[in-house]
Amino acid sequence: xxxxxDVLIVGTGIAGxxxxxxxxxxxxxxxxxxxxxxxxxxxxxxxxxxxxxxxKDKDLFIEDTLKAGNYKNDIKAVxxxxxxxxxxxxxxxxxxxxxxxxxxxxxxxxxxxxxVNRIVHCADKTGKKVSEALLKQVIKRKNIRxxxxxxxxDLIDKNNICFGGIATNEESIVNIYAKNTIxxxxxxxxxxxxxxxxxxxTGNGIAIALxxxxxxxxxNYIQFHPTxxxxxxxxxxxxxxxxxxxxxxxxxxxxxxxRFVDELLPRNIVSKAILEEENKTNSKYVYLDxxxxxxxxxxxxxxxxxxxxxxxxxxxxxxxxxVTPVQHYFMGGIKVDCYSRTSMENLFACGEVSCTGVHGANxxxxxxxxxxxxxxxxxxxxxxxxxRNINLKCIDKQIDNQxxxxxxxxxxxxxxxxxxxxxGDIKNELVNY
Length: 433
Ligand SMILES: Cc1cc2nc3c(=O)[nH]c(=O)nc-3n(C[C@H](O)[C@H](O)[C@H](O)COP(=O)(O)OP(=O)(O)OC[C@H]3O[C@@H](n4cnc5c(N)ncnc54)[C@H](O)[C@@H]3O)c2cc1C
What we know:
By secondary structure, the chain is of the alpha/beta class. The protein is built from twelve helices and 18 strands.
């Protein structure tokens, strides 16, 4: 079976959907996702989206991002991120996202390594609320077709030019021809035993890039979030206790109730301090304590975290929360320029699968959703301007079921193999296939 389109978008998280909404309405767009629309990291985001508060805050926002990233960031990309933050947050509001307000103004919260409060949020369900608002708009567009449970296994390409992708669902193998293809396939958390990510996110986009010799960058930069909920016999993804709890005043203490670190330092430093404390006290966790805050505030500000913990018999208004570092985010990815262009012609990468360089060695809290927005919009703009000059060549790429299954398996293994090669120190954190 063949599908012809102008643009193929692989992944329906915030990066994929925002790209689709920023493409011209007369383009024929196909979106595919390997699972359901809800099963992506975008739906899980809690804390919020960072933004320069105004023109004057841009320089400080840039400095905070660089400092958190150990100055390994791409400075040009960071400047773009900060400069275009305000307009993209406004665009989300125009698209129907209702961020929390205080006295009629946006209620900015704070997270680790931000010098000021500059994170917009929808309580602690920001990702779900933003995703739902975007999806509502996407569904209205007659020019966008969405296929769920459809997995990209390979690109259709020749001489380093991309002409679309090959995907499988349970019934068939589909060639989706496209003048431009966008990989927005998310992160790699599904490759780790303990991760906050959806288990389905196993770095497929990175695997395809590695196989096709498309440039990748900073694959050694993997972020561990300091405060995953510690559960003795947990299976599946780990529940995140958002950094915004610490932003609102929650304290980290060891099992003897003693504070040991400034909670608002960058994530990599706090994670390291927790692991050292766990070793010293011979414990698998430390505690995050928010019990000194008013109960009504906790329940209103963190409804998701309150109810998820309650369902596990933990009342966070009365009890300390056991937490430990878990894999959370991938700073590395497919190397792109400031317009999300990869090293393969007509192929773009947006969101967590890409590496714009904005995060350097360690992502500043809440910069991920912002990166997805800013650089997806830039990709869409470039495509809108250039697509009429592209001739689509339908290259025959017939493959059989057996080959498709082999490619699927290979895509799962290939990133694992690469990570073991470059990050031998985290080998025990990875799953076995
Ligand atoms: C628990 C949690 C909390 C977070 N909180 C925040 C926060 O407060 N602020 C912030 O900025 N960031 C946060 N993040 C990070 C942020 O949510 C993600 O980085 C961001 O949502 C990634 O968006 P994306 O569109 O790139 O990928 P995703 O939303 O993960 O979407 C990836 C898509 O690709 C699809 N896909 C993957 N492989 C294939 C394939 N082979 N074929 C077809 N489809 C495929 C998936 O099915 C999915 O639709 C959080 C992450 C987690 C896990």
